[in-house]
Amino acid sequence: MKFVLILSGLVLFIIIWLVLDFKLGRKKHLSVAVRTETSILHGDFDIFTHGRELFHDYFTAIRQAKKQIHVLFYIVKDDAISQEFFMILKEKAQEGVEVRLLLDRLGSWKVKRKVVTALKEAGIQFAFSNRIKLPYLFYSTQVRNHRKITIIDGEIGYLGGYNIGKEYIDEDPKLSPWRDYHVKITGESVNFLQSEFLIDWNEYFGEDLLRQPAYFPVLPRGVVRHQFIPTEAGQLEENFLRLIRKAEESIIIGTPYFIPSAAIFAELLESRRRGVGLTVIVPFTADHLLVQEASYRYLRQLLAAGSRVYQYKNGFYHAKTIVIDNKICDIGTANFDQRSLFLNKEINCFFYDPAFIERLKAIIQKDIHDSKPLTLAELNKPNFIRTQKERLAAALSYFL
Fold this sequence. Notes:
Layout: H1 2-32, E1 41-50, H2 51-63, E2 68-73, H3 80-94, E3 98-104, H4 113-121, E4 125-129, H5 137-142, E5 149-152, E6 156-160, E7 178-187, H6 190-205, E8 224-231, H7 235-246, E9 250-254, H8 262-273, E10 277-283, H9 291-304, E11 308-312, E12 316-317, E13 321-324, E14 328-332, H10 338-342, E15 346-351, H11 354-369, E16 371-373, H12 376-380, H13 384-396
Helix pairs in contact: 7-8, 9-13
């Protein structure tokens, strides 16, 4: 009995500590987060949907760098493509190119100390972002830098859903082929990507380069109207709400994890009540425990409200996009889930160019063609194990 009381007291203490740690850490984060978005910018964009094509282009661009390579990733693995990536960066650093590499501490946990040491010895300036730290240990484990940004010579930018690892180039049998959206950017807006990288770099490496003109060349004005919106600490929710409220005819959402906030879900249901068509694309195969089950309670209600839901079957669907009518589309690093909404650092690009939106919609139509419709009858079919998973997922949905 004494042991049970001690154990119960210990469990209660841990729960109280975790709750207080998270609430106080979030309060602190909210107090320092700065809301930023650009004015309308003009650039030129290529879209990549297959990893092999993206990384062929990406590695070629890095190899051609003359001055600087600035890279921020959420995940870099310990595998052949990661080693090739590191090798290219080391070669460029040894040639005299400034190379700065910023990786999320937990997302890139497979990057070991000896690898970091070798990178630094080759001349690469390296830092981990979002390290676990006091006084809010639990909260700091949850807040990740989920951005994927690269800027080369201040003139070429990359942004989107791809990380560095074998699954992203179709070498994971369970998740192949990997479907994602990543953009290559040229034009005036690359300067903003540069500034966002350097803000994060200064926070974690302690080197302030924002006032250095060498990193901000004069760039030509492109043709695609767009704006960048970096977010953290809950800022993304309001941005998504604004998008949904603008819809008059249709909303398309592509995401690997459909776990919206209460406010966003209510707005989606309201959009259906006012006659807006709603289409959601999600994976058929999940890559993490419980994320699929967490989505089912929302998808049931959307299907009952007349929405269309498709499960992508030609590999794993990791794209992150929203299309509102034919007027606005979003491609970025943020998933349609509560972790991206409330915890992660993200960066999204909103496009206002009709021709670009048509390009993206053609890609989405291909993805719908490679999907199967999900029906309410399937989700309502009795399944004891799935029901228990859904209950557990509902309790943990904020952290999935």
